[in-house]
Amino acid sequence: MSERTIYILLTRSGTWFSRLIHFATRDNYTHASIGLDGPDGPFYSFARKYRYLALPAGLVEEQVTVYRRAVPCCLYELKVGEETYLRLRQKLRSMYAQREEYHYSVLGAFACYFNLSLQRRHHYFCSQFVAGLLEDCGAVELPKPPTLLRPADLCGVKGLRPVHQGALEGILTQPAA
Fold this sequence. Notes:
Blueprint: E1 3-11, H1 16-25, E2 31-35, E3 43-50, E4 53-62, E5 72-81, H2 82-97, E6 103-104, H3 106-113, E7 123-124, H4 126-136, E8 161-167
Parallel strand pairs: 6-7
Antiparallel strand pairs: 1-2, 1-5, 2-3, 3-4, 5-8
């Protein structure tokens, strides 16, 4: 059985929302994304749809090459079996094809901060989306429900191996794992 690699990218971008989360939590990373096509491929997450507007937000495709300033990040890889990888890819494609039905869960992120679980249909915050996708497809076992996982909590998920820590722009200069 062949093994595939998926990537989890944690960042702290410096937007006002990221700064607010960092101020409240003191977490090193305030945003989580998932990528299936290598460290320089697209990543998917729940985030702002437009560069200068925090809302509306929803399911978006993010490109590492878009970032031109030094954004702190940690890139993790996760080895999964072919079947798990295909489930992840199918679920991600299906959700992205219907991305207009999905919305950022401001209330869910707020509830998570207070350690309260809030699950709403088609509403996610970034780390809830990444963790839920990984759990639903059988890639990982989580220490707590996705609705209670902050981006920094993903650092401790069993099976994730850090492959780059530092500036986001450094990911593109790293040799492929």
